[in-house]
Amino acid sequence: MDIKSNINSVISTYRITEEQKDDTWSSLQKALDKKSTANTYDSLDPQLAMLKVIEYLMGSGNIYNPYEMYYNIDANEHRYQKLVGTTASGEKIMEDTEEQVPMGQLGTLRFLQPLLESFHRKNKKGEDNSAIASTLTVAGYQQAKAMRDAILHQKGTGVRDEECISHDSDRAEANTDTANRIWEIQAVVEAWYKATQGESFVPWSQKQAKADTATAEQGQAILDQIKANAKTKKILSNQVTEEKLQAQADDADGINE
Question: Do the beta carbons of residue 111 and residue 57 sit within 8 Å?
């Protein structure tokens, strides 16, 4: 079995089976049946709980150097090195580093990537299409419907009674409350990312748009330079030089040899 096949074989063991889903859920419910556990669970602050989950994934405070180790013969010691680039010929450029990172950083960032991207999702029109936006959109239409029907009911021209109208308003409030809860969790994830990575998360779509703009600007700059060079070359080729003036004078004197 080659390396890739062996890796794929290991990966397949991490797929959660239907039985594992059922067993996990059953275990969680049994744990919550215990009064002490249930009380602790109920007292958890959702934002702190989310932060705890992320810190757990990151390795619970354990750090290490994630880069390749090698033995430096001249210094007679082991060192770490990371890839910082490649040469024109494709050779790797390595650099010594003493950087320390949380043990779970690689997997955790990849685990959170889709979630972070979802916070900034846009539709084809470029409008916000995140879970919060779509939930608030539904809430907005529900509330608008309730207000419209309330006015019609008051005028005596509506077809829906007060209970139905009130239910629409309740649905709008429920969805708005859900959007607020999602925002609370999103705030934790985005705050954690900025605090640990040193910058706010930028979705791939924005990075791609920025790269496309930079490429377009670079292309335009090159094109402008090519045009400028061509124009300069044309001007120089038509420029009256001292040699041309002398040749014309010689022709006029009839002494051109």
Answer: yes
Which of 21, 45, 24, 41 is closest to 32 using CA atoms? 41
CA distance linking residue 112 with residue 108, whole number of Å: 6
Side chain identity at residue 198, one-letter code: G
Sign of torsion over alpha carbons 193, 194, 196, 201: positive
Q: How far apart are CA 38 and CA 40, in angstroms?
A: 5
Percent of the chain with pLDDT over 70: 82
Q: Is 202 strand, coil or helix?
A: coil
pLDDT tens digits for 172-207? 999 999 999 999 999 999 999 999 999 999 997 776
Instruction: Give 184-187's long-range contacts (Cβ < 8 A, gap of 24+).
Output: 184/46, 184/47, 185/46, 185/47, 185/50, 186/119, 186/132, 187/47
d(CA 229, CA 149) in angstroms, rounded, equals 70
CB 80 within 8 A of CB 98: yes
**pTM of the predicted protein model:** 0.74
pLDDT in tens, 40-53: 999 999 999 999 99
Cβ atoms of 146 and 173 closer than 8 Å = no
Pairing type for strands 101-102 and 68-72 reads unpaired
**Residue 72 phi, psi (nearest 5):** -85, 110
Tokens 């309730």: give the residue.
Answer: 146
For the chain, give the longest Cα–Cα distance. 119
Rounded to 10 deg, the angle between the 162-197 and 105-119 helix axes is: 140
